[in-house]
Design brief:
Blueprint (H helix, E strand, L loop, with lengths): L16 H5 L13 E2 L11 H8 L3 H5 L5 H11 L6 E4 L1 H13 L5 E6 L4 H9 L3 E5 L8 H6 L5 E7 L11 H10 L4 E5 L20 E6 L12 E5 L1 H10 L7 H12 L1 H25 L10 E5 L4 H10 L2 E2 L1 E2 L9 E5 L3 H17 L4 H5 L15
Parallel strand pairs: 1-10, 3-4, 3-5, 5-6, 6-7
Antiparallel strand pairs: 2-8, 7-8, 9-12, 11-12
Helix pairs in contact: 2-10, 4-10, 5-6, 5-9, 11-13
This protein binds 4'-deoxy-4'-aminopyridoxal-5'-phosphate (PMP).
4'-deoxy-4'-aminopyridoxal-5'-phosphate binds next to helix 5.
């Protein structure tokens, strides 16, 4: 039977104005069969112990609704928190969405720095059109003074990623605490998705900062992006509201089964994080040698300034079996391309392909220096 699609008929049903206005996020997911250095994923794969646990999933287990609380207790213990201070979510993506649902009225303002993770735009604008964005200067460092000046009495939600994506920049603890103190009427969500590749955290400040919420993901260092699991940690009162807007079954049972095993395998996470730290050094040494300008990174990726040939490079790399992410349309990122840092072998392959492809497309540093298309500042080079 062929069901007629009514999508072309103009119906009487309209979504909320906010939904009509909000941006859409379509990451380029299709055909990712080459070496994936485009999405900041773990390039190795999860801990083998997690795979073992996954193989023990039973048909009976699949027939049951997932139970989140016992795993939240385990996670809370791991972080030295009370169970009520932890909410497991369907990745940090969902965590961002839930926070916006819980705290943003349509007339409230939210504050973010740009360039940053695009899901902040999407989730905020689903609730409120008043999204203030503070653009970084040409260094792409966090614009702390201007950010502080962006706080108003209507600011109800502030989201800061540290380390940030796609820049790799971190925001110091003192600055984060100053932001929280300057906006006591707002929730400050610090997105620590890339925590393991830097090591600095404000998790310990949850005890003293009532409006702070920390987000962590298990998609990156733990290698579980496909299981969709992340977490929020924060003040019990605040999390009570976030819990209220979340489905009781937001995290699937396989992810809940695996998370305690993943957390317990500390050796694996320490190993993977070290692979990234060492690999990042190798990558930046290689970029210096190739004269490719880049931004210093505290995460599992490096943002490079390729200039006018950014598209050509991404295409050439794809043809050479390596996927990169073109970040040119991010604000202040014209000509910028991001490369994920993974395990040693993948860094080696990534660097070798870069060397070959830059040569193949006839790239020179001069065209970056002369590139008129910088959206911010006057020529971004390497800032260390
Ligand atoms: N925050 C940042 C800063 C990210 O870069 C990403 C993923 N790219 C996420 C959150 C989303 O993570 P998750 O897979 O947990 O939804």
């Amino acid at each position: 039977m062929i069901v007629t699609d009514t999508a072309t008929h103009l119906g009487a049903v309209k979504p909320r104005k906010a939904v009509l206005a909000m941006p859409e996020y379509h990451p380029p997911l299709a055909g990712r069969t080459a070496l994936r250095l485009d999405f900041n994923e773990n390039t190795f794969g999860s801990s083998p112990r997690v795979m073992e646990r996954l193989r023990a999933v039973t048909a009976e287990g699949l027939s049951k609704y997932p139970e989140r609380e016992p795993v939240e207790r385990i996670v809370a213990k791991h972080f030295g928190l009370r169970a009520e201070q932890v909410l497991l979510t369907n990745g940090v993506d969902e965590a961002i969405h839930l926070i916006c649902c819980a705290f943003l009225e349509a007339e409230d303002e939210a504050l973010i720095a740009t360039p940053s993770f695009f899901m902040y735009d999407v989730s905020v604008q689903m609730m409120s059109p008043h999204l203030r964005k503070v653009q970084a200067d040409a260094t792409l460092e966090f614009p702390f003074e201007r950010f502080m000046a962006g706080i108003t009495e209507r600011t109800k939600l502030i989201i800061v990623a540290s380390p940030n994506n796609p820049t790799g920049a971190v925001v110091g603890r003192e600055h984060l605490l100053a932001i929280a103190a300057a906006a006591p009427q707002a929730v400050l969500m610090v997105d620590e998705a890339y925590y393991h590749f830097d090591g600095a955290s404000v998790m310990d400040d949850l005890a003293t900062v009532p409006n702070l919420i920390v987000a962590r993901t298990f998609s990156k260092a733990y290698g579980l992006a496909n299981l969709r699991i992340g977490m929020l940690a924060g003040n019990t009162e605040l999390l009570k509201y976030v819990r209220k807007v979340s489905s009781p079954y937001n995290v699937n049972g396989a992810a809940l089964d695996c998370l305690p095993v993943a957390l317990a395998d500390e050796e694996y996470v320490a190993w993977y994080s070290e692979q990234v730290r060492v690999g990042r050094e190798r990558m930046t040494d290689g970029l210096r040698e190739l004269e490719v300008p880049f931004f210093p990174s505290h995460a599992n990726f490096v943002l490079m300034n390729i200039g006018p040939k950014h598209k050509e490079l991404v295409q050439a790399m794809r043809a050479n079996g390596v996927l990169l992410r073109d970040r040119s349309t991010d604000p202040g990122c014209d000509g910028f391309v991001r490369i994920t840092i993974g395990v040693e072998e993948h860094v080696t392959r990534g660097l070798a392909a870069l060397r070959a492809c830059l040569d193949e497309i006839g790239w020179t540093k001069q065209e970056v220096d002369e590139s008129p298309n910088q959206q911010v500042g006057d020529g971004v080079r390497e800032f260390e």
